[in-house]
Amino acid sequence: MRHATSHVPVPGGPDELHRGLSAFGRTQAGQLVDDLADLRPDAIASSPYLRAVQTVEPLARRFGVTVTTDAALREWESGLEPRPDYADHYARSWADPDFARPGGESLAALSTRAVAALRVLADQHAGGTVVVGSHGTFVARALAGFGVAVDWPFSAAMPMPAVYRLSFSGMRFHAEGPGLR
């Protein structure tokens, strides 16, 4: 799932690792517990970024499950500092997924990382349910990596939070969630 509503990134503000949920986002995270209770997760994994962890913590408390953080579930390392014209830069990256800014990661590399991380979790918990807390670009590029037709407008329009359900059966999978057909 994509994390709940977080504080907006600002120059000089908390870095990406420490930027947490807004008050509204904390309320959303609490509401997700009822929305996801039927899943009865065997495991909960999260990006180490605070906003992702804060999104899954209420569910973990409800089921007595420890949140395991994994750097492979982190957000895209775009190579950009917070800036008002970020959307233009993101659109360029979506148009050319192999493009990487200095010090950044290409979207193609993110897709590879995301698919590998989710496959590892699926293999570790075969037959079980894992809830994963992550980020919008990570989720969109994971879906793209599994062959789902998503693009920059899809990623830009993804709500916070957004829950996508992936079901794995060997090498096959099924995806459902907001904006998917």
From TrEMBL:
The keyword Isomerase applies. Its EC number is 5.4.2.11. Keywords: Isomerase. One of its GO terms (molecular function) is phosphoglycerate mutase activity. It comes from the Bacteria. This is 2,3-bisphosphoglycerate-dependent phosphoglycerate mutase. The keyword NAD does not apply. Signal peptide: none annotated.
